[in-house]
Design goal:
Rossmann fold
Length: about 500
Amino acid sequence: MKEKLLELKGVTKTFPGVIALDNVDFRVYKGRIMALAGENGAGKSTLMKVITGIYTKDKGEIVYKGKNINFSGITDSIEAGIGIIHQELNLLPELSIMENIFLGREIVNSIGKIDYKIMKMETLTILKRLGVDYDPYTKVGKLSIAEQQMVEIAKVLSQNAKLIIMDEPTDALTEKETEKLFEIIKELKLSGTGIVYISHRLKEIFEMCDDITIFRDGKYIDEKEVSDIDENQLIELMVGRKLENYFPRDEIELGDEILEIKNISNKYVHDVSFKLKKGEILGISGLVGAGRTELCKTLMGNLKKDSGEIILNRKNLKINSEKEALKQHLFYVSEDRKKDGLILGMSVKENMSLSAIRRFENKFLKINFKKEEKLVDSYISKFKIKTPSMEQLIKNLSGGNQQKTAIGKALMTEPEILILDEPTRGIDVGAKRDIYLLINELKKTGISIILVSSEMPEIIGLSDRILVMSNGKITAEFDRKEVTQKKLMKAAVVSL
């Protein structure tokens, strides 16, 4: 018999012009892991914010530990024993690891002063439990995204919560860090902790979770035990349709060589050489830390190269900044769209046209707003970006729609070469499919694409040719017809 720890009954939450949650039900059981699945925009994040008191529900009931609750803020939910690990990092970069973990819950001594010695010991204990060796006094701003994610996890573990919500907790973690997190989740489960697990990685859901609730378009669809459903059935419930030909691919005749990289080296990459043809999708595979992103940033001039050549259309280029790269019709879509790709406080229209604003200037250097709006509207329609209007703030869109906007922003610059760094990170299966269709269409127009991805099925399914990196070097090259996941992994661990 499953014991209910949390139950939501008929909960509704609306925003101007949007019903985010439409009379939904949701349950979490003591000592069990409940997956919450659905496409971006299904209402998952809104539900979590309602549970933790960040948002106030419009109607419905929330029952926690047998009592009706109405939290007025995140502090109330923490005090009640509910912790949340946010997908969007919620840390203060100028504070230390220790200060972030105990922020608002500082340990004080008998005379009311903060006891840094005890806090340090507690921090070290929690970090050891996670299998990481960080200095508690290190400022969070100096940590990598993966390291910051571990601090977010440590913060929740320090609260001794009885209900823990995990929103894409492995998104930035290495395989080793993920394995350690899974061990801790199993420990928490055995201690009776209820866990809500939100992930677009279906493999993780089937590996870790006991139950699963499916949302679609703000509505509750179904609740099942994971053992009673397979991956195809889950996808159909999430998207409301079958997804045929998941990796769309039109074979086209590749054009002439458009880019040649000769012996590029700096502190991150070593003697990297490759060629790229017009209309080709060149995949770059490898483990976290292999140097893939650093290579992309070197090509864009964001990182300085110490030696080597970048030859575009048979011209040797000196690219020392992203601005210079844009002039040469190169565009980089960052793996971290919220930090490097988009300005969250600006609208969809402003974000999309920002890098190409000169396209809309007339001879008097005034912006032709009608021309701008017409082009932005065409991309919104073509990419199926779900937004009430182009004036909507980008921060209010789902991850998948933000990513489509980031790609639209790139295309506004009319690139010859598009570098896509983890283009489907943190987005759902339906949005992924939309991105794959888009990549395939771009290829057909003759745009050359460099695709960086940690998902091997994705990179095999989309690429014409694949390079593998390890320790800043290219360790293998495969034609799509001969490549396998086993071959990619073998090449990725060379010299580790």
